[in-house]
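Notes from the 1:1 (GR / supervisor)

We went over the backlog. Supervisor wanted to see one worked example end to end before approving the batch request, so GR pasted a single chain during the call. The sequence is below; no edits were made to it. Supervisor asked that the structure be written out right there so they could see what the output format looks like.
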Amino acid sequence: MSKRYDQRYFDTWYRRRGIGGAQRLARKVALAVATAEYHLERPLRTVLDIGCGEGAWRAPLLRLRPKARYLGFDSSEYAIARHGAKRNLHMARFSDFASLRPCPPVDLLVCSDVMHYLPLKELDRGLPGLAELCGGVAFLECFAREDETEGDEDEFQARPAAFYRRRFQALGLRQVGSHCWLAPGLADSTAALELAPAGA
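Structure output shown during the call:
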């Protein structure tokens, strides 16, 4: 990718233009935490954030669950150099998760606003690793060709929603709504109407 996720990028999209805003992010984090805890039937303990940027999920997550362990990975040299030590962020590209296993499967795996910018080859290399690293719920926020998006359109891959559904379901993930997907081991313990129909 030629796109640079440097300080200028984060200043532009996350500070000056305020994509989503703090309140929307807090609601998103609360949704993901509640969904994971509902299906795990216990408090959330571990979170892995792939494509974490500056670690924006960390603060609202720890406000909700102060004892949770947060671990983030991103390909932005700027974000890791500036925030890595303080926020537990580390360098990795999405495709590195073809083999990278930095922790046991986590209660909540986050990959938010990342996959629709990835070239197909990189996406397909990394995706199986995400499924293996999720032991509870994966929050996989993607935007598709059918969506009316607002924000950074540079290198946006306008793929149909069915493209992502097919790939996630092929890995054993099952959709439970609002970008949330159950780990393969949890799907059998859910009620029929909690799951979106396979292939939908």
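Supervisor's comment: The chain is about 35% helix and 20% strand.
Batch request approved.
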